[in-house]
Amino acid sequence: MGVNQKVAVIDMGSNTIRMVIFQMNELTYHLIDDTKETVRLSENMGLEQTIKPAAMERALSALARFMKICRSRQVETIIPVATAAVRQAKNQAEYLERVKQETQLTFRVLSGHEEGYYGFLGVINGLTQPTGFTLDIGGGSSEVTYFAERELANSVSMPFGALTLTEQFRDPAPTGEGKLLLADIRHYLYGAISSNEWIGGKTGVPLIGLGGTVRNIARIHRELIQYPLESAHQYVMTKAQVDETMAFITQLSVKELQALPGLSKDRADIIVAGGLIIQTLMEVSGAPELIISGNGLREGLFFEHYYQVHGSEAFGNPLELDVQNTMRYYGVQIEHAKHVAHLSVRLYDELAAIHSLGERERLLLRIAAQLHNVGVAVSFYEWQKHTYYVLLHTKIVGLTHRERLMVALVAAHRSKKKMREMSLPYQQLLRPEDEDVIAKLSVFLMMARAMDRSLSSHIQDVSCEQKEGKVKIVVYSVDPDIRLELKEAGELQQKFVKAFGCEYSLKTKLTTDRKQ
């Protein structure tokens, strides 16, 4: 593989054709392009199940534009797949042959099971949930899977999507104004979904939604509540919030939906049908919440290719893989970052009695410590500000929006005043106790950074003892000259007192035991 291989995945769906392009370096990957065009490939397929000439022309024009992007970006590998519309089309062979002649692309037609599997593969590489349902709503089909302990257990491809439901259940009456027969759709969906017995009886298992319909429902809800962070990945909606959003949009005309903030205009006429699929699946499955996944089928196909190239474990710890990838992408000095994380966590563990925080906060500290230097890639000057921005707007696998904000604030922390200024636009995401938690975690990180100020890993470990209202910190060094580290660590006394209400002293012990 080339040092800078570029990989494109083209997903030809029933409603849209989308393309993502990833750049793969030796040990990293990152998204460099994401584009889509609404082509309505399954429009008016009818009982004869054929792709109509107008839809073909729209698709071919879109693919020609995508190929120009691939050529200009010097993409080496293209993975083209087609889903429901092409899968169901009786003129599939004729259509794909024309596509091949005009674009030189040989599309692989995914089965319903494969479509569900690649959506699942994208999800588990972007989230850390051990168990869940996934739902991928297309224009002409909807894929549902159930996974347990991060292994695929069940899947089904249902022969309806947002576009085909809209066409099938549009009110034919002259006074219908193009509105949908909502009761008829609900009845149809309930019967179709509940016929899959494995979907019911799993109360408490979340539904993970992927695809444009789900993202648009979530975006509408974010606009309604004036949510401060413009990020779809790992956005969570309760069942009640899904119901409230659906109650709102089902009262609007198509014209009103087209003007609705948060909703793509090209989905205005099909969003209600798509939303009803989400709502009905949550009712049948008993899912208490909808979690939005920014990863889906295209990412699943990319990760399959990536793991084939690198021989990596597709079902490993996605958070660890993501943090490692982020460090490499931003040119972080990995050994230093890992050592700072090690010292941060050791201080956290040794001082558990004075902070009373849990395992989740420990994880946030470790992530912040490993990624605290990413802002230097933007500029050394004001690197904390750049670190904060990068981490806040990076979809760190497995972290909620609140946790992502906390990691960004811990990594970039300078003072409580500065923290309040940076977090002010996002106060809606934080809990009342989070400010103190962030302050405590920040002190551990600042002390650990000070203890490896020379990037030499001379201070290998720490132990702490609390006695008579004071903390004694013993640092174990492989080098007798750690005056730099002791000086900088000693300058954090005031911050330590503010965070924990007591002072500390530093003592050095020489050791020959290198822990890393």
From TrEMBL:
Stored Gene3D superfamilies: 3.30.420.40, Exopolyphosphatase. Domain 2, Hypothetical protein af1432
InterPro entries cross-referenced by the UniProt entry: ATPase_NBD, GppA/Ppx_hydrolase, HD/PDEase_dom, Ppx_GppA_C, Ppx_GppA_N, PyroPPase_GppA_Ppx
Domain Ppx/GppA phosphatase N-terminal: 20-304
CDD domains: ASKHA_NBD_HpPPX-GppA-like, HDc
UniProt record, GO biological process: regulation of transcription by RNA polymerase II
GO molecular-function term, one example from the UniProt record: hydrolase activity
SUPFAM superfamilies for this protein: Actin-like ATPase domain, HD-domain/PDEase-like
Pfam families documented for this protein: Ppx-GppA (PF02541), Ppx-GppA_III (PF21447)
Keyword Hydrolase carried by entry: yes
DNA-binding found in the keyword field: no
Keywords, alphabetical: Hydrolase
Occurrences of domain Ppx/GppA phosphatase C-terminal (ranges): 323-473
Family: Belongs to the GppA/Ppx family.
PANTHER family: EXOPOLYPHOSPHATASE (PTHR30005), RETROGRADE REGULATION PROTEIN 2 (PTHR30005:SF0)
Name listed for the protein in its UniProt record: Ppx/GppA family phosphatase
Organism: Brevibacillus fluminis
